[in-house]
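#struct-help
A.M.: can someone run this one for me? Single chain, 524 residues.
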Amino acid sequence: MTVSAMTESSSAPVSPTATGVEEAIPLEIIDPTTVLIQRLDAWRHVVDLLYDYAEGHRIMYHNLSRDYERISKTMQEAPRFDSVETVPENGDKPAHEGISGGFFALRDKSEGLINAAIEAEKSIKASVIPHIERVSHDIKEHIRGLKSNGFKGVKDVEKARGLTQKQIELLGQQTSSFGIFSGRPDPLKDPYIIYRGVLNKLDSQIMKENMQTDTLLTIQRDFKTFESHVVGGIHQMFKLMDQIQTTFADFQRECYGAITTAFTNIPQEFEWDQFVARNKHILADESAPKRSIDRVKFPNQDHESSRPLIEGVIQRKSSATFSKTYNSAYYVVTPSKFLHQFASKDYLQSPEPEFSIYLPDANLGAMYAKETGKNKFKITAKDALKTISTKHTFEFKTSTYDDLVKWWNVLHEVATSGSGTLSRGSTITSTGTAAAAAAAAATTPGAFAEAAETATSDPESTESPVQPEVEIPVAGASLASPERATESASQPAADPAPVDDPVPTPLESEYQTAASSVTAEPPT
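D.P.: on it. Structure tokens below:
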């Protein structure tokens, strides 16, 4: 075999192929290790975030259990309504009703929520967090293995390529000096020998390059599997989280539903009905009749000093100068010898008098004769309600002559009885007493003639027409002489003289109607 034949045979391994010509020393080394490590670092960051997520939920359930415990302690301070228990027939625990039942359910379910939150915390700590920690550990181990295997193969390839590069450079030196120098060359520097050395080094380099490629392909295939493992671990983590949270959420919803039902099922009047049933002896009886002042009794209610001697609606002339207006009011003569004026008979509208006269200090004038048609009398006195007051002459008018006689008789007896109090029995107001006074008047006509003469001569006088030694004129007895009285009885009554008084107002007419029913108290 010639040298050229050997050269062709030896050069066969590096001859061009269908795949094309490749450089003996590629410019770049295929090494995805760095990119893969960066990807694993990203996955590790993802897993770390998910760890924080799980740990955050663990802390949340831990704090939630404490919050529920604080709420439960607050509910222990709720008002204690009387509990109403209902014992079921199936032997279950007694059921509580009303507000107490609502708070019983609230405290019971709050205790259950505390335990459920604690269990959720334990479950996350015992299953989810260890699982995600294992995934994180696997990623770290994978990064460590990738750095160890990937970088070691790269270094071997770089070293092999360096040896091949030196051998190729040596071959270039020998081929460039081939045929220039004469003499016997060094057999080891024979370009052929160096060429064979290049092939040897190149073959070792390519073998290591292929081994590195196989290693990288294995790493990439394992990486795919590993990523599937990481994603599967994440799946498992969230399944565990979902199971824990769903269990807690379902129980929480059940508890809140039970609490809501316990309170919303309370009839709105249940507690009040129970309270009324327990406190009948304290609460007001709705069926009891309302209090009425007509049925009320109090000490001294019927004492004679609190009963009027006479009362009713009469009119008093206005105190304005030259005024002819009469105002109606409610007047009362009391055993304390006062003549009180009230705006109304109703003690609610007029509990205190507007005007008062102490009769023993007053001067009572004579009555007008019946024939005059003026049912009037006058009183000169001070207003006892005022601290500083001067005497005034007050003119009063009744609706009928009979009322005039009744009022005048009572006022006269009170005014002439002196100071102190007056018994109701001492006043002459009854029909029987009036008849007796009339009989006495028949036996002493002179006295009444004198009184009639006084009344006829000066009806405007405020001095009493009765002298101390003369009997008090009584209702129905005429103040004129007996002969005039007999003459008047035999003749028809003449029309009363016209009165120049103004027409009463509607309010005064109402008072006049009420006054027709006024009577004096009979003696006891």
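A.M.: thanks! The longest helix spans residues 98-176.
D.P.: also worth noting: Residues 28-268 form a domain with the Substrate Binding Domain Of Dnak; Chain:A; Domain 2 fold (CATH 1.20.1270.60).
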